[in-house]
Write the structure tokens for this entry.
Amino acid sequence: MYKSRIYITLLALGMLLQSCKDEPTTNTDDNTATTDSTNAVKPPAQIPFTVVAAYPHDNTAFTEGLQYVDGVMYESTGLRGKSVLKKNDLQTGRELQRIQLDGKYFGEGITVLNGKIYQLTYEEKTGFVYDAKTLKQLQTFTYANEEGWGMTNDGTNLLYSDGSDVLYFMNPTDFSIVKKIQVKDQYGPITDINELEYIKGYIYANQWRADMIYKIDPSTGNVVGIADMRNLRRQTGIPPLEEATDETKPEVLNGIAYDAATNRIFITGKNWPKIFEVKLDN
């Protein structure tokens, strides 16, 4: 009797386990369901680069934002007490105009849209809007991110990074967040997304402390191309990153600008003595 009870109990337990195994395990609760989005991300294409030309660049400029519009190179630099917004002549490197930020602000990414310059700050959760011709400050705005990094625009919205794997689309009128995308490749999220430029429908991005440029699909966040720029330093005489032992030496690759009129891409870095025109896949 004792053995038969054990047998019946084991039989019932086996049937229960089998029924559990046959049940689908997908959680249909929208609040907790997760999907492996990386399964759909194809490996990005390798984008070769060629240096086309070199132009003078202020080697004391801690470059945080760069954009070329109507023959003028706009640049934002960082470090508290040294942050400036300026306009430069590309060919000569001559400074055309500048404004100094208040010493409490650390200047970050910029973009020019509809005659206005938008600028982020690093940890102050504050942005500035200027007239692109006069550099007169028109207004300030705030954002919730703990940090502000790179900035560009797609012709309608402002796009910015905060050092994470997320890019934010912001309405330039009321500064509300329109949408967010996660930057990822076939292996998963990519963090430290830094300076940005919108080129022919794609977002090109620097990654902090990596000599790489990522080409990102703005509709999905998927990285569709990678330009490995590590040989650029060797080719152009820029010292290796490991030699940047203080903030006065050539530092990280940080700065992408696009001349839509002539289809030219320019890149530079913090404290680099040159701006380089490069051929990527443009």
Notes: Helices lie at 2-22, 230-236.
